[in-house]
Write a structure and sequence with these properties.
By secondary structure, this protein is an alpha+beta fold. The chain is built from 2 helices and 5 strands; from the N terminus they run E-H-E-E-E-E-H.
């Protein structure tokens, strides 16, 4: 999911603040912030683990773009080799994503 919102000044600090409460926020050199966290849930008796990655990108002067990526696995599978490789691939791709530095026009 990608959401764009307008607010007060868009800065690297406001991007980091947008992710507060989800986990340890990583401030990146490009001004964006990244957080990764997981939630364990139960769906009809099946334990699941949902992994989330969120990137907050400031778009000066007053917009913020929020990217949310998620992956759901069986809770018992996330340490299996194939799933661990998939998670590592997603982590790498999300971290290397090239984000548009300006607002789009409708």
């Amino acid at each position: 999911n990608v959401m764009t919102m307008q607010g007060p000044a868009a800065t690297p600090d406001s991007a980091a603040s947008a992710l507060t409460g989800y986990g340890e926020v990583e401030r990146r050199d490009d001004g964006t912030s990244l957080v990764r966290y997981s939630k364990d849930v139960d769906e009809e008796g099946t334990p699941l683990r949902i992994l989330y990655w969120q990137i907050a990108q400031p778009l000066p002067p007053d917009h913020l773009r929020l990217f949310v990526f998620s992956l759901t696995t069986l809770a018992s599978e996330d340490s299996e080799a194939g799933i661990a490789e998939l998670i590592a691939l997603l982590e790498s791709e999300i971290r290397s994503a090239q984000l548009a530095p300006v607002l789009g026009q409708l």
